[in-house]
Each structure stands twice: as structure tokens, then as C-alpha cells.
Amino acid sequence: MRLTAAEFEGLPEPRLDDGDPLPPENRAPVRENGLEALYHAHSGRLLRFFSRRAGTTDAPDLVQETFVRMARIEPAACHRIESPGAFLTRIAANLVKDRARLAARRSSSCHVSYDEQVHGQVDPHRLLDDRDALARLEQAVARLNRRTREIFLLHRVEGLTYAEIADEVGMSVKGVKKQMAKALFQLRRDVGPL
């Protein structure tokens, strides 16, 4: 049912009984205890502090931990703190330091010392010689004619048998064997023993 403005103005004002809840503007403000007031006053600042130093993902947890440490202080001691904001900042700075120490301990426990017997056997001259030999082999394979190169790579790189290669390239097994012998002869001549 809709009322017009004139009908609405003619209605008597509603009366509130003692059992009726008060509207929000008439409610008495809730008094915060000291820790809640500190949280509302300083949590944003501490969140920015931790975001710059520890990253945005861990910052809310560190703010929470700061106030947990503050809550552990005896109430009588809390009243003697002259500057609670500065005290919270000190707690926050100590949390960052504790976290850095923990990270350093964890990384040092993951450190593996250099073992001369394990790593000492790698000869850099040998590595260079092997790299040069591989480059010479690649050049020698590139100089083979197309069919011989294809057969050599199918057998030595792909691991196909002579019969599988014969089916793939359309040759007899005997022809594949001749091509492989030709490839090996030319590669040994150009590079050395394989």
C-alpha cells in the first residue's frame, strides 16, 4: 500500500518502547580497549612498513604478529609506554630482523661445500677438446651427400634398425648397409675414430 505525502504527514509519530532497538545514530559509541584503539590507529602504517620490507603477501601476517607481541606485554607495563606507536614500530623492526636471521639460517643450512674430489675431475681443456671434436663431426656430417646423411642420422641419432631405415627410405637392407659403411668411412677420414 502506497501513501501519498499528505497521508504520510498525517500519521502519528511512532513511539519507541524500552524493548525496541535504538536507531544507529542514537546508539552509544562502543569504547575500544587500548589494543583495539592501537590497532585501528597504527595497522595501516604498519602494513605499509611491512609491505616495503617484506612484500605485500606477508605484510598482513606480520602486522598481526606485531599486535600479538604487543598483547603479550602485561597491562600494567602497557600503561607506562609513553609512545605506543613508536613501540609498535620497534616491534615491527625486530620482526623484520628476526625474519632476516631465519632466512639466513635456512640458506646456510642448504649450502653444499665444494668437494674437490667430485668437481676436481672436470678438466676445462678436455671440455674444449670435446666441443671442438663435436663441431668437426657436425661439419663432416653436413658434407655427406643427402641420402647418406639421412641414413646415418636415422641409425645413429634416431636409433632405427637397418630394416626400418630401408622401409622408410625405400631401399634394400643391403643398400642401407652400403650407405652406412660409406658414411662411417668418410666421417672417420674427416674426424677420426667414432
Automatic annotation (TrEMBL):
It comes from the Bacteria. InterPro entries: RNA_pol_sigma-70-like, RNA_pol_sigma-70_dom, RNA_pol_sigma70_r2, RNA_pol_sigma70_r4_t2, RNA_pol_sigma_r2, RNA_pol_sigma_r3/r4-like, WH-like_DNA-bd_sf. Gene3D superfamilies: 1.10.1740.10, Winged helix-like DNA-binding domain superfamily/Winged helix DNA-binding domain. Residues 135-184 form the RNA polymerase sigma factor 70 region 4 type domain. Residues 1-29 are annotated as: Disordered. The keyword Hydrolase does not apply. Signal peptide: none annotated. Keywords: Sigma factor, Transcription, Transcription regulation. Residues 38-105 form the RNA polymerase sigma-70 region domain. CDD domains: Sigma70_r4 (cd06171). Pfam families: Sigma70_r2, Sigma70_r4_2. Belongs to the sigma-70 factor family. ECF subfamily. This is RNA polymerase sigma factor. It comes from Tsuneonella deserti. The lineage of its organism: Bacteria, Pseudomonadati, Pseudomonadota, Alphaproteobacteria, Sphingomonadales. The gene is fecI.
